[in-house]
Amino acid sequence: MTVIAIAVATGLSFADWMPSRAAATTVAVGDFWFGNSSSVGVPFVTNINRGDTVQWAWGTTRAHTVTETDSAFNPNGGTNIGDSGSIAGPYGPITFNTAGTFYYFCVLHPDDMRGQVNVAAPPAAAITVAVGDFWFGNSGSVGATFVVNINGGDTVQWVWQTTRAHTVTETDSAFSPNGGTNVGDSGSIAGPYGPITFNNAGTFYYFCILHPDDMRGQVNVTGSSGGGGSTGPAPGSVVGPRTSIIRIGYPEGARLFSPNNITITAGDTVNWSLAYGNHDVTSGYPSSPSYQSPGGKAGMPTTVSSFSRVFNTTGTYTFYCDEHAGDSDARIGDIDGSIRDGKMVGKIVVLAADATGPATSGVSVSPNPAAGVSSVTVSAVITDSGTVTSPIINAEAFINSVGTPGTGAFLPMTDGAWDEISESVSGSLSIAGLPAGSYSIYVRGQDQRGNWGATQSVSLSISSTGSGGGGTGGGAGTNTATVVVLSGSLSNQATPVAFANVSLTGVDTVISTSPLPWQAFDGTGTGSGWNVTVTSTDFTSPSSGIIGVSNFKVRLLSTAITTVSGGSPPTTRVPTFVALSTTAPLKVISASTGSGMGRYSYVPDFQLTITGSTRSGTYTASLAVTMNTGP
Predict the structure, then answer these.
(1) In this structure, what DSSP letter does residue 231 have?
(2) Would 485 be classed as within a structural domain?
(3) Burial level of 288, CB count in 10 A (0-12/13-18/19+)?
(4) For the sheet containing 605-610, what is the strand order?
(5) Nearest partner of 330 among 263, 261, 276, judged by Cα
């Protein structure tokens, strides 16, 4: 759905799709070329580095578009921003955070105006962070966060400038910069630590667990690694049982546990570490499992300055220092009050862990039947839908028999990130060398907790590719040619509607306008048909004036519909002016079953009646434009 703001007194324009984060390379847009007039009919090539930006600047008042050649145009690694719509510029800047080659064209002049952006991955850099007493980076960062900014694929190494032990510890167990095994805790060492390669974009935080108030760090990673052997998407990281650390007698001189109220997951570990003073840890509620500290009452020995317990059962657990609090302070009904009162007590809430694997649905294979191809595309949806859920991180496919988890053909996520409890996956499965026949294709997925789910299967038919002659006599044979056409989506692009200023005359006045061309695109390949509907709010102004939506009308003439590319065109549903509604969607254009498969441009006309009693002011309405499946 596209939502457009409409103004009567003053026109409104769309903001840039994405703010610039780097100096922009500017591509000129003229009639009928990108870059310069010599590129008419040939692609204009722009070479940049990952993280750079590109902006298209119009040198003409004529409308053009900057449109991706397919839905894979996704330079920023996020929402698809690859179509400017029909505008008179400028467009962008767009930040290209992913290495690769991206193609675009003007949908209004596709033969003349084409472009290409080559995005190179910069060479990886090695960054060194000094570690001192009591700082990361430099002595000026004591008590502050030392920040390092790097690119995806760069490495960071921590080098000690002291003989004192410190740690480089993630702030949580999700710290996994290289996309693989958790490498985010050095342990207590006198250095060095690393190097660690940061392949994933994001912000990663760390601290010294021995000096948490003084020593903190942050690594900002822009872009994912795009070179140096990167082969595209990979499985996500399993986040298994975690360890939470509670410092005893911290800060120095305080009779406190820090933190004193934590929530963990069944199977996680809690580590109590003595920071200062003479204290112990005594079980409160329940008494089992016991997590009594070594050494007895008020006497954790200096030789055993920490101990750990694993919590496998859900529930609420309390603990206290037997020297500086009592059992009554740690009762379930009193623990929260004791924490608020600053007593030396603590509480642990243990939640259920995700123990079931995700379900697989919608398994499909293309082409099916397969003939004359060495691989097929397997697609499915993996969903973790139990009582306790985790994000999906992996999916795999097998032929005929299911192997050990993690040994199947990897199926990448289709949206670029393992970050949801339901992921669509699609990948290539080799069928090279398999004889003609029927095969079962099995697919299953894995969640972030490491659980693999059950498989779902679909049948694949491999047909004969024909046979050629042999021997000295030669012979004739047949073969096949195959192409896989993947389905796309429905997409409608609506440009703003702006009326000219109108002067009140005491009588009703009817004003009209037409926006720049709207565009509808059906790339589903199903021929199911489609329609575009419009609703609108009332026009309102800051002076509390209202122009009712019943005064706002739209029509679409058949002559205003143009086929940009595709088959039978759609047809108008409003050949004469029809009033819009705030609640009932009005069909403006539609394609019957079997038609409207392609890209089409259309220009609706809008009409607004300004009554003689209308208050002066700037009136604005929101127009919702929605493209739906079916005629």
Answers:
(1) -
(2) no
(3) exposed
(4) 509-513, 605-610, 552-555, 578-579
(5) 261
Which contiguous run of DSSP H or E holds residue 336?
A: helix 335-340
Is the Cβ–Cβ distance between 27 and 54 less than 8 Å? Answer: yes
Q: Cα(442)–Cα(396) distance, rounded to whole angstroms? A: 8
Residue 412, domain CATH: 2.60.40.650
How many domains, in total, are found in the chain?
A: 5
Does residue 158 share a domain with residue 280?
no
Provide the pLDDT for residue 78.
31
First to last CA, the chain: 17
- Asked whether residue 116 falls in the same domain as residue 136, the answer is no
Q: What is the pTM of this model?
A: 0.40
Question: Do residue 64 and residue 161 come from a single domain?
Answer: no
> Are the C-beta atoms of residues 391 and 415 closer than 8 Å to each other?
no
> Does residue 109 sit in the same domain as residue 150?
no
Residues 134 and 106 in one domain: no
Out of 222, 256, 277, a domain closes at 222
For residue 468, tell me if it sits in a domain: no
* Residues 313, 372 within the same domain: no
Q: Which residues contact 278 (CB under 8 A, 6 or more apart)?
A: 298, 299, 300, 323
Whether 66 contacts 18, CB under 8 Å? no
Instruction: Give tens-digit pLDDT for 234-250.
Output: 676 676 777 777 888 87
Extract the tokens encoding 295. 């050494």
Half-sphere exposure of 340 toward its Cβ, with a 13 Å CA cutoff?
A: 4
Please check whether residue 228 lies inside any domain of the structure: no
CA distance 515 to 499: 9
Q: What does the alpha-carbon distance between residue 50 and residue 37 come to, in Å, rounded to a whole number?
A: 27
d(CA 393, CA 450): 9
Residues 139 and 190 in one domain: yes
Q: Which residues pair with 101 in a beta bridge?
A: 118
Q: How confident is the model at residue 496 (pLDDT cuts 50, 70, 90)?
A: confident
479: in domain: no
In the chain, the largest separation of any two C-alpha atoms, in whole Å, equals 100
Pairwise CA distance, residues 535 & 544, whole Å: 22
